[in-house]
Amino acid sequence: MDDSLAERSRPERELLQIEADRGLAQRVAAGRVPRRRTPTPESEAPAAPFGSLPPWSPAAPAEERPMSDQTQQHTKPGADPWAVRYEGYDPDDEGRRESLCTVGNGYLATRGAAAESVADGIHYPGTYGAGIYNRLEDRIDDRVVENESLVNLPNWLSTSFRIEGGPWFDLAAVEILDYQQKLDLRRAVLTRRFRVRDEAGHTTAIIERRLVSMDDKHACALEVTYVPEDWSGRLEIRSVLDGTVTNALVERYRALSGDHLDLLRTAELSPDSVLLEMVTNQSGIRVAMAARIEVWGNGYRVGTERHLVEEGEVVGYQLALEARQSVPVTLEKIVTVFTSRDQAVSEPAAEAATWLPRLSRFDDLLERHVLVWAHLWERFHLDLADDGPVTQILRLHLLHLLQSVSPNSVDLDVGVPARGLHGEAYRGHIFWDELFIFPVLNLRLPLLTRSLLRYRYRRLPEARVAAHQAGYAGAMFPWQSGSDGREENQRLHLNPISGRWLPDPTLRQRHVGIAIAYNVWQYYQVTGDREFLVHYGAEMLLEIARFWASIASYDRARGRYVIRGVMGPDEFHTGYPGHEQDGIDNNAYTNVMASWVLRKGLETLRLLPAQERHELVERLALRREELQRWEEVARRLYVPFHDGVISQFEGYEDLEEFDWEGYRHKYADIQRLDRILEAENDSVNRYKVSKQADALMLFYLLSADELRELLGHLGYRLAPEDIPRTIHYYLDRTSHGSTLSAVVHGWVLARSERLRALEFVGQALESDVADLQGGTTREGIHLASMAGSVDLLQRCFSGLELRQDQLHLTPFWPESLGTMEFTIRYREHPLTVRVRGSCAEVLAGPGRQRPIEVVCRGQVAEVAPGARVSFPL
Ligand code: BGC
């Protein structure tokens, strides 16, 4: 807001702000939001830093980089790095905006759907509570399938109005004079401002603000100000808690059931507040919401006619008042949300009712909410010299990360859903995506990683049973995880192109256990949290190691151990041609990392204090012979190679080459070749094509030295030239059908081919803001790609590594991009890292921690609290 407005009263300020915005809107030429763009085929992608994002490098002039229509609104030079704005209303784009304008606090999140909207194909009001899952059964052909979903909770926003008894407000039925939507990234507040004229000629300006409090995780607030511009008369406002919602966002799932909530009760709590209590119909989780609904004008409560609305699963008020021309009136709705999964509660409805009157007004909630966000932004501080579009997108990514998991999630027994708490794609399940997310958290809020890892620990018993039932030892974690840790992978999935329901064998991605072990190890490396290792981490790591030793079988002919019937991260290859469901053998990523896990398992045992080691070995009944087998398997796992490159899996070289050019001509978008080929009665399993990085994951997770050592231990030699050869081999054969792919490719190319790497960085940055997958962002954000893009810039380009109790920096940040500055926590030191070109500077905050060692290009410096160390070129 303009500073000159700050002195005035709030309604007055708002009126003036509307005037100011009106001018602004006209100046911005009220552009309609452009349509979705077709992603640029990789071969034609502009060779420019950050793909289609604006130039940072003087070496690359702007004209060379056509900016996609879709991203202009986010990336125009000079864009406010602390806000995302949308000008104009575009029904076709509403779903994407709703996902990107979600507000949340790690306990619950609410999509940026218009407060007056219902699910109607354009809008989709969705509110999701962390860990609130429910299972439903369906019959498809002759099979009964059961799916567990993150439940769409009652719509707490639902607020509409009408004038002089006319029709209830509907954006589609009025003339829209101005329309703006702004997500304030610093404050996590969503604002809609618009002016409309109805059929009767009433012109009304509306300002809507909402927040989901980061300070009090049970509190949400909505405020809607109405300004009758050219009329006076009867204004009716209907504001309710709407429990008629279902899960219906994802078109592919619509043939399956989505009705998860049953009504328990509605009630009026006081003359201005109501309660709605519902229960999930299988998991029995009770969800209570209470709302206080008041109207304010000029700093006073406005008297209204008030009618209680109590219609089945809907409860709230219909209010009526005499509105006067140019006099703003404000509806304020304060909402509390509790569930039976909460701690420190008696029962959710009682808590929702008790806490509602304890909450004050919107602006008071806002003040505390902003304070907590300010603290979070200090921890997640990030400044790039551009201070514009790229910084803006990175902050948007960090905001959505923290809205999905935050300090509010710490006590909740929840994991990180791949699509955030922002939509219903993948039904809110938890995959291996944590691998891309935890590095950002480890370095800033390790307490949160610890809690998210404990989500896995609590499901270790289920993973043990899964391994046992499959005939293995140890723990086999599910590919898709939800409430209790059983496998939630769908049994049948719909190919939307062919319309066929097909078996889904992707649960063969046993590598999810590798990700969990890797995450445990990394968390320990960053924090040195031995308590965690002793009580939880070691047990998970050892049980996962045990699983890999038991799934590996000895191949006498080769004199090596092999792992058969699995899938690598590339989901296209579910089996060999003709055996589509059976998995593939010796996925290089899996085998090399299985060896890594086995060795880390042994190392962990050595790290444990004697007594704890003894206890754990006894509890897990780990025998000496078993540990010997781990050593043996870790040394003799088979890794396939062909043509001087690491083979994605055994037999990959025998597959057919794919006609990339032909298919690029035939289809506008060939990211999902699995679906395209199945619809053509062909199979992607026949070809050398990958959906996403698979073998290249090795270069993403391990440094070249680590990988060389690991392969050396296995008896293979990786020559320096084999690395770029392997990278290029797969680069030419990957469709990037997962947003994770750009993150990994950006990372692995960063050192050798910076320009090409920056293109992938650009793609990772644009994955959601430009909806590069053409329609998936509306179903929920891609959290791993969001967090991964931040990590890619900060950790990869600064060369930040934590090993041997030292913090290593090897920056190769493009000099022309100026200084990149970010904050991290390492061994309890709050550190600010500045990187420019190959130079680095580290500033330590005050404290009493023991000094740490920082290494940059061979120079070692001890950094004590309060110190500042520079590493010039
Ligand atoms: C990717 C997986 C990922 C999942 C959830 C899929 O498209 O292939 O690697 O775990 O999405 O994000």
Structural overview:
With 873 residues, this protein is of the alpha+beta class. Among the domains are: 88-375, Glycoside hydrolase, family 65, N-terminal domain (Beta-galactosidase, Chain A, domain 5, Distorted Sandwich), CATH 2.70.98; 798-873, Maltose phosphorylase, domain 3 (Sandwich), CATH 2.60.420. The structure holds beta-D-glucopyranose. Residues 418, 426, 431-433, 569, 571, 691-692, 738, 740, 784 line the site of beta-D-glucopyranose (BGC).
Q: Please report the distance between the alpha carbons of the first and last residues.
A: 43 Å
Residue ranges: pLDDT <50 for 5 or more in a row?
1-48, 54-77
Overall morphology: globular
The CATH architecture term of the domain at 88-375 is Distorted Sandwich
Each distinct ligand: beta-D-glucopyranose
CATH superfamily annotation of the domain at 88-375: Glycoside hydrolase, family 65, N-terminal domain
The number of helices is 22
Can you tell me the CATH topology of the domain at 88-375?
Beta-galactosidase, Chain A, domain 5
Structural class: alpha+beta
Mean pLDDT: 91
State the share of residues found in helices, binned by percent.
25-40%
Keywords: Glycosidase, Glycosyltransferase, Hydrolase, Transferase
Binding site for substrate: 432-433, 691-692
Domain Glycoside hydrolase family 65 C-terminal: 800-862
Protein name: Glycoside hydrolase family 65 protein
